[in-house]
Design a protein that fits this description.
With 316 residues, the protein is an alpha+beta fold. The protein has 8 helices and 4 strands, in the order H-H-H-H-H-H-H-E-E-H-E-E. The protein has 2 domains: 205 residues, Alpha-lytic protease prodomain-like (Up-down Bundle), CATH 1.20.1510; 86 residues, Alpha-Beta Plaits, CATH 3.30.70. Helix 2 packs antiparallel against helix 3 and helix 3 runs antiparallel to helix 6. The chain is elongated and about 85 Å long.
């Protein structure tokens, strides 16, 4: 894919986000008015959830624009983590909203209020249509970043929430079961708290430079130490810049007899090839040490670069 094509796809994605923001803001206004007129806590809860989605879309859009900025002297790792920070903000807001909905549900249990079922069903039906449209707009970008996947998940949650509100409205109209409104509110809150809590742990792990959950650092060590010329590894660091780009940093102790840059070059290439092909790590920094010498003047460092695709020689 060319840079021009990537840029076009990115801008096309931004246009989808603009439309998603517009329909969500419009829906939020309609739901809030309908919730007040109908006296429906579930409908107002859904409006707040949709408002959070509109806000998350705005934050996601800003983060996407920041994330594509080139590396500079102040941000030597680039701006790719902007979307991870945006995800942290969005998920934190969702946790607050989830807690607020639980509080409102408890208050409604203690002080029940009448709910107009037909208006709830009408407004929630409109919301369901808008939620499906938003899912359609954001789905193509769901595999691009953790932030956009979180946005898609929230939109799917909105669709399910709107469906639950419709069911609650029908139960109120047919059976005068006003407790259904509160139960739906608790279900919405539970869904939001569960998924936001799950996603925020992953976001925090990235920001804390934790080892990616799908990679085992000991397995990486074992595989690299199988390579010809490698005696052992130490001072190993494995972390993620975002959910898709991972970095590796280690001191490599080489076997006796390898002492010059020419000798070390095949070892370096083999390690980088192993990291890329076996573990999907395309950015690594390796510092070489000679067996028995330890770190210091006798070590040789090399800057990281993307590895090739050819298979490297291994010791078995």
């Amino acid at each position: 894919m060319t840079h021009r094509h990537q840029h076009f796809d990115h801008e096309a994605g931004n246009q989808r986000i603009y439309w998603a923001i517009a329909v969500n803001v419009l829906l939020t206004v309609v739901q809030l008015i309908g919730g007040v007129l109908a006296g429906s806590l579930a409908l107002m809860a859904d409006a707040l959830h949709n408002l959070s989605d509109a806000s998350s879309l705005v934050i996601a859009l800003v983060a996407r624009r920041i994330a594509i900025r080139p590396v500079d002297d102040q941000q030597t790792f680039g701006y790719r983590r902007a979307e991870v920070v945006a995800a942290l903000i969005n998920l934190t807001v969702l946790l607050v909203i989830g807690g607020y909905l639980v509080l409102q549900g408890v208050m409604r249990l203690l002080d029940p209020q009448p709910v107009t079922g037909w208006l709830v069903v009408l407004v929630a039906s409109v919301a369901l249509v808008v939620d499906v449209i938003t899912v359609f707009l954001t789905h193509p970008m769901a595999d691009q970043s953790l932030n956009m996947r979180a946005v898609l998940l929230h939109n799917l949650a909105d669709a399910l929430t709107s469906l639950g509100v419709i069911i609650a409205g029908v139960l109120i109209m047919l059976f005068d079961f006003h407790l259904a409104d509160v139960l739906v509110t608790f279900l919405v809150a539970g869904f939001v708290l569960y998924h936001a809590g799950h996603d925020i742990r992953r976001v925090i792990a990235i920001l804390m430079n934790a080892t990616p959950p799908h990679l085992d650092i000991n397995e990486v060590r074992v595989e690299v130490e199988k390579l010809a010329g490698v005696d052992s590894l130490h001072h190993i660091h494995l972390w993620s810049l975002d959910e898709s780009e991972h970095s590796f940093d280690a001191h490599v102790v080489v076997i006796a007899g390898l002492s010059s840059p020419v000798d070390l070059q095949p070892v370096r290439l083999a390690i980088k090839r192993c990291l890329a092909e076996e573990f999907g790590i395309h950015h690594s920094t390796l510092e070489f040490e000679f067996l028995g010498s330890g770190s210091g003047p006798g070590s040789a460092g090399f800057e990281s670069e993307s590895s090739g695709c050819a298979g490297g020689q291994r010791e078995h």
